[in-house]
Amino acid sequence: MPQLARHAVRYASTYSSSAKVAFYGIGNMGRGMALNLHKAGFEVTAFDPAVEARNAAAAAGLRVASTVEAAAEGADYIVSMLPTGKHAVELYLGQSRLLSRASSAATLVDCSTIDSHTARELGAAAAERGFGFLDAPVSGGTAAAAAGTLAFMCGGASETFERAKPVLGAMGKKLFHAGPAGAGQVAKACNNMLLAIHMIGSTEALSMGVRAGLAPEKLSEILLASSGRNWSLEVYNPFPGVMATAPASKGFAPGFMTDLMVKDLKLALDAAESSGLDVRMGRLAKDLFEEHQRLGHGHLDFSSIINRLGPRAAD
Ligand code: NAD
């Protein structure tokens, strides 16, 4: 889909504004994103049904509302970062009825990773009520969410993308307008299928080398300087102890949960099926992550898939 890469825009996260933002979903990703909006000068009010998430956000300095409605009051932008499409439909169209509560001038940006069909449905429902709506899933993980260096891949009207740029630019470094409603989610499904495949490949290569007597740090250094280099090795090394900042060195605390990776791989496989493509590596990655989830590791970071390979040589 060549048009997906057409509108790459680099945007420094230096924008400052006093516009009002209602932020929904302040979990692992959303908290850092909302804080960056706050730091950039936006007047942010956050909501999350989970009390722990609200308390953590308040402790970090965010203003927190106790209802969907209170957060939406007078908002120029509505940003959401929710687990699944079901949660997004519930927030915008279901019991929470955000589309009925938001100010008619608000621009809506859903950053959750959901299926492109639901994203199109939300875009159409928002357009019917006169709102600009973007599906704007992200790449980069929790460290990038906290640092404000996410990549956004957006689907929706060009004018809505332009209007959302100040908000997106405060949370990310690379903004892409992938195409019309749903196109951001298509790009995201492609990315996460590839991420799952190179994460599994990296765990196998590292485990194999370590089992054969190499030090994981030295092997990682060699791979990073060679053609096996990839994002999993660069910033998210799955071998415990190699990279202090990676979930693998923190007991596999997420990060990006296995449950969410399984969800994303199902979305990718659905997309492949509807295009009539046989994506065998993607299917295998889905099967392996599903097995890992069934074994009770759904709440762990997805890099814990390395534990499938058994005890390490050093253990
Ligand atoms: P999370 O479970 O930590 O956070 C989601 C939050 O949304 C939770 O706190 C939940 O209580 C809240 N929520 C649910 N329904 C809500 C509603 N109606 N209103 C307001 N809040 C609601 O998940 P996460 O890791 O932050 O991921 C969020 C999204 O970002 C997912 O779609 C995920 O696939 C995607 N994503 C995650 C990562 C990552 O590294 N964690 C990276 C890229 C994309």
Description:
This protein has helices at residues 30-39, 51-59, 68-72, 85-92, 98-101, 116-128, 141-147, 158-171, 183-211, 216-224, 231-235, 258-274, 280-297, and strands at residues 7-10, 20-24, 43-47, 63-64, 77-80, 107-110, 132-135, 138-139, 150-155, 172-179. With 315 residues, it is α/β, with parallel strands linked by helices. Helix 9 (183-211) packs across helix 12. The relative contact order is 0.11. The structure holds nicotinamide-adenine-dinucleotide. Residues 24-25, 27-30, 47-50, 53, 81-83, 87, 90-91, 96, 112-113, 138, 141-142, 255-256, 260, 264 line the site of nicotinamide-adenine-dinucleotide.
Can I get a quick summary?
With 315 residues, this protein is of the alpha/beta class. It contains 13 helices and ten strands.
Describe the SSE topology.
Blueprint: E1 7-10, E2 20-24, H1 30-39, E3 43-47, H2 51-59, E4 63-64, H3 68-72, E5 77-80, H4 85-92, H5 98-101, E6 107-110, H6 116-128, E7 132-135, E8 138-139, H7 141-147, E9 150-155, H8 158-171, E10 172-179, H9 183-211, H10 216-224, H11 231-235, H12 258-274, H13 280-297
Parallel strand pairs: 2-3, 2-5, 3-4, 5-6, 6-7, 9-10
Antiparallel strand pairs: 1-10, 8-9
Helix pairs in contact: 1-7, 9-12, 9-13, 12-13
Bound molecules: nicotinamide-adenine-dinucleotide (NAD).
Key attributes of the depicted protein:
315 residues; alpha/beta; 4-stranded mixed β-sheet; 13 helices; 47% helix; globular; binds nicotinamide-adenine-dinucleotide
